[in-house]
Design brief:
heterodimer, A: about 375 residues, 4 strands, about 5% strand, B: about 240 residues, alpha/beta, 6-stranded mixed sheet, 4-stranded antiparallel sheet, 10 strands, about 40% helix, disordered C terminus
């Protein structure tokens, strides 16, 4: 055991000194939250613009009643239209323009559908969203007018509304938001747990063999299981560190992410998330130890990691596309169980202590079995003298 | 001391080592001499327990390497043929790592490190990372690393391979000093002069078999050559010995 500690300290030092690889890992894991943050900010910006938008109207004089009604809508300011609405929208001088043709009043009076035109560019996010809002406003104006016309003819507007559809949503709104907007959090954390130890595992095992230093290492009267244990522990420390760093970034992302999400997990929630993710980081590092032991070279190990990189993605897609329902059994499956548990915590739901403990124990048990296998593989002649 | 008897190892069709027996006595330098591909490295790997022989036995100070690998390894200090250091660690850290794995107290390790630095003239580079080491610098650190636990049995796989004259001399001095401390030293080489200069006992292997063994004089006599190099050529090339 003492020798496992010696190996552990050496590999940590070696890993830290591999500055370039270390920074590469840090950068690759920090890109994701940055993208999330930027996208969130962007979405928030559009929301802001929608809540307080300008609407250039051409041909105001053709529909005074409609223009007056629009002018009363909150967060909508009517402005003068550019000379040529089409080219103004195309040249991005305006997001959209409402054009009221000269025959509006005439058609309106005759009871024929009075055309109004929205000049917009749907390839632009802001233009599309604004056009949507204006369309909804115009439709509700149309419905008001329709109701008034019916009433003036002595017909109840209720007659043309034979159904009233109401939805009783049982999916709590926080849970829904958590599942749709925060689905990235378990995914992101599991990726960190998965890839955090990759660098050390591949360098300390496959790299050691590739450089040929493994022969001398195996001569030191230290049982292979201690060597593997020390190397795994170093990889696992990196994986846990990056997972915790990932949790830290999630806290920041949620804090600075626009209020649209309105989910602010408590400190206890984050501790639960950490308790869920840490055993998984240990398990994932063990997977990498096995792959690195099997691989002939550093590069080959990296290739194998590529093959298994889809593992943390499976639960993400499974949940996003509803392939699996959460049940008691899901807690027993490493990665999938953790994914659901982190989602539940984010959704503000209780996670049973037994569930947390069981999932952790299963991950640790699987890690122990993998390390045992790696130890037997590590000293196999065909593996040591593979070059 | 190391005793090898009836060692055999094959890789598929290739017979790498075939019925090899010899002994490396305490207080003596034994040379394992043979051309490239003769099975020297494979033999040494079986000696330090990294490869399992298909037949035969190896005993280090009477400890069976196959059955009690860890106990045998405790009695061995070895320089395997890969000659690799950890590039991101300094020379000193490389030696320290193995000393700690062997359970040597830190204070003892530092004393021995200082001694090796003086003995092998490593002061200029020992605190630099191993990545930029020259061949000679690397070899000296490797040797210090193999000997830091003061093993009774020293196995060196082509230790002077590619070294310059000064480094080779230092290496030879150290090997002689080990003999003076009553260690059993076994080293492999494909260079005749090297072996004839140092060895008390020579084992010549070719194509996996022991073709001659004995003191340098005995080998010259057996081959019927005055020159040891001629004897080596005659003994290791089948074409010549058949003639």
């Amino acid at each position: 055991m003492r020798s496992a500690g010696v190996v552990f300290r050496k590999e940590l030092l070696d890993g830290f000194r591999d500055r370039r690889a270390f920074i590469a890992v840090l950068v690759s894991i920090s890109i994701f939250p940055i993208v999330m943050l930027v996208m969130g900010r962007f979405a928030e910006g559009i929301q802001d613009e929608l809540r307080n938008m300008e609407l250039p109207v051409a041909g105001r004089e053709n529909a005074p009643a409609l223009v007056e009604w629009l002018g009363q809508q909150p967060g909508l300011e009517l402005t003068a239209a550019p000379e040529d609405p089409e080219s103004a929208v195309r040249n991005r001088e305006a997001d959209l323009v409402l054009r009221i043709p000269a025959d509006y009043e005439e058609r309106f009076a005759e009871g024929r559908p009075a055309e109004v035109e929205l000049v917009a560019d749907s390839s632009r996010t802001a233009g599309g969203a604004k056009a949507g809002r204006v369309t909804r406003l115009l439709e509700s104006y149309g419905q008001e007018v329709a109701a008034l016309r019916l009433v003036s003819r002595g017909i109840s507007p209720m007659l043309v509304r034979p159904l009233a559809v109401e939805r009783a949503e049982v999916f709590s709104s926080r849970r829904r938001r958590a599942f749709s907007a925060l689905g990235f959090i378990p995914f992101f954390l599991l990726m960190n747990a998965f890839f955090g130890g990759m660098q050390i595992a591949s360098d300390a095992i496959a790299g050691e063999r590739e450089r040929g230093s493994i022969e001398a290492l195996l001569l030191n009267a230290v049982p292979a299981r201690f060597l593997i244990l020390g190397k795994w522990a170093a990889a696992a420390v990196f994986a846990v560190f990056l997972t915790l760093l990932g949790i830290g970034t999630c806290v920041l992302v949620l804090r600075f992410m626009p209020g649209a999400l309105n989910i602010s997990p408590s400190v206890t929630d984050w501790v639960l998330v950490a308790l869920t993710a840490i055993p998984l980081a240990l398990f994932c590092s063990a997977i990498q130890v096995v792959l690195s032991t099997y691989a002939k070279s550093y590069k080959e190990a990296q290739t194998y990691f590529g093959y298994v990189a889809f593992l943390p993605m499976i639960p993400f897609f499974a949940v996003t596309f509803n392939w699996v329902e959460q049940g008691t059994w899901t807690a027993f499956i490493p990665i999938l169980g953790q994914h659901f548990m982190i989602l539940n915590v984010m959704a503000g739901e209780a996670v049973a202590a037994w569930e947390l403990a069981l999932a952790g124990l299963i991950a640790l048990g699987a890690a122990a079995a993998l390390l045992r296998f790696a130890s037997s593989l590590f000293v196999r002649e065909s593996v040591v003298f593979v070059r | 001391m190391i005793r090898v008897s009836g060692l055999r190892k094959t890789f598929g069709e290739v017979i790498a080592v075939d019925d090899v027996s010899f002994a490396a006595e305490d207080g003596a330098i034994t040379g394992l001499l043979g051309p490239n591909g003769a099975g020297k490295s494979t033999t040494l790997r079986m000696l330090y327990g990294l490869m399992a022989p298909e037949a035969g036995e190896v005993a280090v100070d009477g400890v069976d390497v196959q059955r009690r690998t860890m106990a045998a390894q405790e009695r061995i200090g070895a320089l395997p043929d890969t000659h690799a250091l950890y590039p991101r660690l300094t020379g000193r850290e490389n030696v320290r790592y193995f000393a700690r794995l062997r359970g040597i107290p830190a204070a003892v390790t530092e004393d021995r490190l200082d001694e090796f630095v003086r003995l092998l003239d490593m002061a200029d580079f020992v605190d630099r990372r191993a990545k930029g080491y020259s061949h000679g610098e690397r070899s000296r650190v490797l040797l210090a690393r193999a000997l830091v636990h003061e093993p009774r049995n020293v196995l060196l796989d082509e230790p002077t391979n590619g070294l310059d004259v000064m480094s080779t001399r230092r290496m030879r001095d150290l090997i002689r000093e080990l003999r003076g401390r009553d260690c059993a030293v076994l080293f492999s080489s494909h260079i005749m002069q090297e072996v004839s200069l140092l060895c008390d006992h020579i084992v010549i292997v070719a194509a996996g078999r022991v073709v001659a063994a004995g003191s340098p004089d005995a080998i010259r006599e057996a081959a019927g050559c005055e020159d040891l190099e001629d004897a080596f050529v005659r003994l290791t090339s089948p074409a010549v010995s058949d003639a």
